[in-house]
Amino acid sequence: MQFLNIDVTLIDKTGLIPGKPKPDGRIPKYVDLTLHDNKAGRDQYGNDGFVTQSLPKERRQAGEKGPILGNWKHYEQRAAGAPVPAPVKPAAPKTPEDDDIPF
Q1: Spatial separation of the C-alpha atoms in residues 4 and 32, rounded to whole Å
Q2: pTM for this structure?
Q3: CA-closest candidate to residue 15, choices 50, 70, 52, 51
Q4: Where are the domains of the chain?
Q5: Residue 96, Cβ neighbours under 10 Å: how many?
Q6: What is the mean pLDDT of each run of 10 residues along the chain (103 residues)?
């Protein structure tokens, strides 16, 4: 299973693909995305690769590359009956009394 994390503000709106009109008159727009593996494997943030927007053939042939929109991670599914790790509890907020700075 892969999970994507993309910045939608970076999507090139001119590269959106119009779909067929819906019965309610709405015309959907689609974006083609490509997943690329990191050449050096998993990075320091646990990402296995990055996500780019695919561009129309004419733009690719002109040497243009799609914008990098974000990253992706591969998650292994757990076997049936495998223990699920307990959620991490957030640390209690520090109070001024907990602070060891003398001023």
Answers
A1: 13
A2: 0.65
A3: 52
A4: 2-76
A5: 6
A6: 88 91 94 93 92 91 94 75 55 55 46
Rounded distance between C-alpha atoms, residue 53 and residue 65, angstroms: 8
Angle at 68 between CA 59 and CA 27, to 5 degrees: 65
What confidence score (pLDDT) does residue 27 get? 93
Return the pLDDT at 10: 95
- What does the DSSP assignment read for 14-56? GG-EE-PPPTTS---EE--EEEEE-TTSS-TTS--EEEEE---
Give the pair of three-digit tokens for residue 23: 């019965």
What is the C-alpha to C-alpha distance for residues 29 and 14, in angstroms, rounded to an integer? Answer: 11
Q: How far is residue 59's CA from residue 18's CA, in Å, rounded to a whole number? A: 17
Question: What pLDDT is attached to residue 75?
Answer: 82
